[in-house]
Amino acid sequence: MSWIPELAGGKAPKKFVDTSNDKVPDPVIPNRMVSNKSANQPFLAYKEYRAKQEALHAAWLEKKKARDEKIARGEKVGPLEPDPTAPEEVTLKGFLKFLVIALVCIALAGKFFSGSYTWDYQSKWLQLKTYWPTNQRLFSERALAEYNGENGKPLYLAIDGDVYDVSKGKAYQPGGSYHHFVGTDAARAFGTGCFQTHRTHDTRGMSESELRGLAHWKKFYADHKDYVKVGRVQHPPIDPASPIPEHCDPKKAKAAKEEEEKRKKTDHQEL
């Protein structure tokens, strides 16, 4: 359709000139001609680049030779400029610089596209207080019980001695399904599932599976993006002669009693 502008009184388009048959000297093999077609352009351009690099290197060698001659004559000389053709080695400093620049670019892109430097990714590991805990403290059981959401105080719970702020959790608010965990260390309940009767830190007699369940919940709170550790709770020592809390499941309670009686008989026989 290139003839339409010409019919309308415009300028005629430029005529196509086939240059595929143009020949240029082969940069590798002497006395040989090669086509100047587009497929050969990268090869020809690389040869030109190599020629420029060789010329720069030769000029640097001349400067180095002249400098060495001045040094041999005892003349003062300045520092030798680096070879412009020498490959640059990636140092640790250079890698760290690249990493910082990349992180800054990613953060700025996140702010531009999503309005958040972290691309709306929420994690406790992106919060400064995770690495710089300035509000860690030691609680007594009485002091911990006061952090139940009343009188404007936050919601704290403890699990196996570690105290976490769970104020962001809806289930821990007054009337929530997990509010009974607030203000106390219910480590045993996390492992046994007896939420009403095992709200205690006493873990004596727990089975291996129950202890694994407790470990799971400890990791859950430690890794949660919204729950931050605020300290430790100091419990009074447990009297080893005191009875072990009975399981809320009758079958498991019966099995625990049988196991305890069996253990006592074994200890008595050994004595």
How does this structure look, described?
This protein has helices at 4-7, 41-72, 92-114, 128-131, 141-145, 187-192, 208-223, 250-270, and strands at residues 23-25, 33-35, 137-140, 156-159, 162-165, 228-234. The protein has 271 residues and is of the alpha+beta class. Among the domains are: 25-79, no CATH class; 142-268, Flavocytochrome B2, Chain A, domain 1. It has a 4-stranded mixed β-sheet with strand order 3-6-5-4. It has a two-stranded antiparallel ribbon with strand order 1-2. A hairpin with a 2-residue loop joins strand 4 and strand 5 (162-165). The longest helix is centred in the first third of the chain and has 32 residues, at 41-72. The radius of gyration is 39 Å and the shape is elongated. The model has no long low-confidence stretch (mean pLDDT 83). Pfam families: Cyt-b5. InterPro entries: Cyt_B5-like_heme/steroid-bd, Cyt_B5-like_heme/steroid_sf, MAPR/NEUFC/NENF-like. Residues 139-234 form the Cytochrome b5 heme-binding domain. Residues 1-31, 233-271 are annotated as: Disordered. This is Cytochrome b5 heme-binding domain-containing protein.
Order of strands, widest sheet: 3-6-5-4
Q: Tell me the name of the CATH class of the domain at 142-268.
A: Alpha Beta
The average pLDDT is: 83
| Strands, count | 6
Question: Which range does the strand content fall in?
Answer: 5-15%
SS field, number of helical segments: 8
**Biggest sheet: strands, sense, closure?**
4 strands, mixed
Shape descriptor reads: elongated
Helix/strand order, N-terminal first: HEEHHHEHEEHHEH
User: What distance separates the N and C termini?
Assistant: 110 Å
CATH architecture tag of the domain at 142-268: Roll
Oligomeric state of the chains present here: single chain
Radius of gyration of CA atoms, rounded to a whole number: 39 Å
Poorly predicted runs are none
CATH H-tier superfamily of the domain at 142-268:
Cytochrome b5-like heme/steroid binding domain
Report the structural category.
alpha+beta
Enter the CATH topology name of the domain at 142-268: Flavocytochrome B2, Chain A, domain 1
